[in-house]
Structures are given as C-alpha cells and as structure tokens.
Amino acid sequence: MNGPDTLFAFPARLLHWTMAVLILAMLFIGAGMVSTVSAAYPALLAWHRPLGIAILVLALVRLAVRLTHRPPPLPADLPPIQAAAARVSHYLLYALMIAMPLIGWAMQSAGGYPVILWKGVALFPILPHDIVAYGWLRRLHGLLGYAFFLLILGHVGAALVHGLIRRDGVFRSMAGRGG
Ligand code: HEM
Ligand code: HEM
Q1: pLDDT tens digits, 64-83
Q2: How confident is the model at residue 179 (pLDDT cuts 50, 70, 90)?
C-alpha cells in the first residue's frame, strides 16, 4: 500500500524532514554555545537566532497544514497505549517547536538584547526589559531544550521500531519508503 491515504501529505512530509534537520542543528548549536566562552559564542548565536525564528515560522505553517490535511490512520492493531503515546508526544513536539523560539525571543527581549536576524534587521522586543524574567526564561529555554532532546530521542526510537520491527507502514507514512 502506498496510496495517498497511507502517506502524510507532501507539504507535511517536506516540512517534517526540513524541520527535523533544522531542529537537531539548533539543539547542537545551542549546546555548543553555552559550553564555550570563546569567540565561537557570538558566531553561533548569530546562526541560532535567525534559524530559531525560521523554525517558529515553519512550525506555524506546519500547524496550518496539519489542521487542514487529515493524517493517515495509525495501524488498527496498534495497542491503545502506544496510539495514546504517539498522540501525546506529537502534541508535545508541536508545543516545543512553537514554545522554544518564542521563549528564546522573549528571553532576549527581557535581557535587553536585540534579536538580530541578519545584518541591520532586528525583531521588535516581545517583553519589556526585566532582568529577573531574563534569568527565568534563560533557565526555562535550557531545561525545555534538553526535554526536547529527550522527546526527539524517544520519537526517533519509536519511528525505528515501526520501520524496522513492526514494519507496519507508519515509518513509510512519513518517509515515503521503508517498512
Ligand atoms: C526551536 C528553536 C530553538 C531551540 C531548539 C533552541 C535550543 C537551545 C539550546 C539547547 C540552548 C542551550 C541551553 C542551555 O544549555 O542552557 C539554547 C541557548 C540559547 N538560545 Fe536557543 N533555541 C531555539 C530558539 C532560540 C531563539 C529564537 C533565540 C533568540 C531569539 C534563542 C536564544 C538563545 C540564547 C541567547 C541562548 C544562550 C543562553 C545562555 O547563554 O545561557 N534560541 N538554545
Ligand atoms: C528532530 C526532530 C523531529 C521532530 C520535531 C519531529 C516531529 C514529528 C511530529 C510532530 C510528527 C507528527 C506528524 C505531524 O503532524 O507532523 C512526526 C511524525 C513522524 N516522525 Fe518525526 N520528528 C522529528 C524527527 C524524526 C526522525 C529523525 C524520524 C525518523 C527516524 C522521524 C519519523 C517520524 C515518523 C515515521 C512519523 C509518522 C508517525 C505517525 O504516523 O504517527 N521523525 N514527527
């Protein structure tokens, strides 16, 4: 089976794989940034901000695609607990794809730092200057960043179980090929 009803819509698949690359890159850029005090910090941050804002825009487009295109059904023999885990984890992935860049933007605003997208183009602040809020948001951005990492690891693990062990078409529904 490989008909239109067994695959995610093409825009959903394109967004999924583009964003998977971008989000994984962002997690490593973020972790690399906070583990250095060298000149690499501002250089990495200069990539981190525009990529993060691009993820926010793509996540909103993806949400619209998700709400207007019915996803393929999960296999009927999938245990209800696994179907529930898939639903909840997908909600959380969407929530983090939108919350992480917003928290990054809010944190930079509260810290009084401009969110420079590229030379000469900066975004408006979304919070007033508030150093206590900056401290909290910075911690929250870090904690949720690592929660995002864990969730993605679980998600990739589940995808591989579907693709390599159950071979039930769930992996193919997003990859277009495979088990
Ligand atoms: C999907 C989007 C994003 C992801 C996955 C992400 C991920 C991360 C991660 C994992 C860290 C390291 C956290 C730590 O260990 O404390 C980090 C740090 C940081 N992020 Fe993001 N981020 C995103 C978006 C943004 C955006 C849009 C901005 C700003 C506009 C931003 C600004 C920062 C800054 C300034 C730091 C360094 C904080 C520090 O020096 O303690 N992030 N990010
Ligand atoms: C890095 C970040 C990733 C994020 C944020 C992410 C997010 C998501 C989300 C939210 C869905 C639900 C479908 C939708 O509405 O878009 C999904 C489905 C899926 N993802 Fe990912 N994904 C990532 C990486 C991966 C990787 C690396 C793989 C493969 C090894 C993968 C395999 C799949 C599969 C097979 C589905 C279909 C599941 C189903 O039918 O319920 N994903 N992904």
Answers
A1: 999 999 999 999 999 999 99
A2: confident
Expressed in angstroms and rounded, the spacing between residue 139 Cα and the centre of ligand 1 is: 10
Q: Do 51 and 26 meet the contact criterion of CB atoms below 8 Å apart?
A: yes
Q: What does pTM read for this prediction? A: 0.94
Q: Is the CB of 34 under 6 A from ligand 1?
A: yes
- Taking the CA of 31 as reference, the closest ligand is 1
Q: Which residues contact 152 (CB under 8 A, 6 or more apart)?
A: 23, 24, 27, 93
Radius of gyration of the chain (CA): 18
Residue whose C-alpha is closest to residue 90's, from 111, 78, 79, 74: 74
Ligand 2 site, residue 16, Cβ cutoff 6 A? yes
Question: Looking at the 3D structure of the chain, how many domains does it have?
Answer: 1
Range of the domain at 48: 4-175
The CATH number that applies at residue 48 is 1.20.950.20
116 phi, psi to nearest 5 deg: -80, 125
18: exposed, middle or buried (Cβ count in 10 Å: 0-12, 13-18, 19+): middle
**pLDDT value of residue 3:** 54
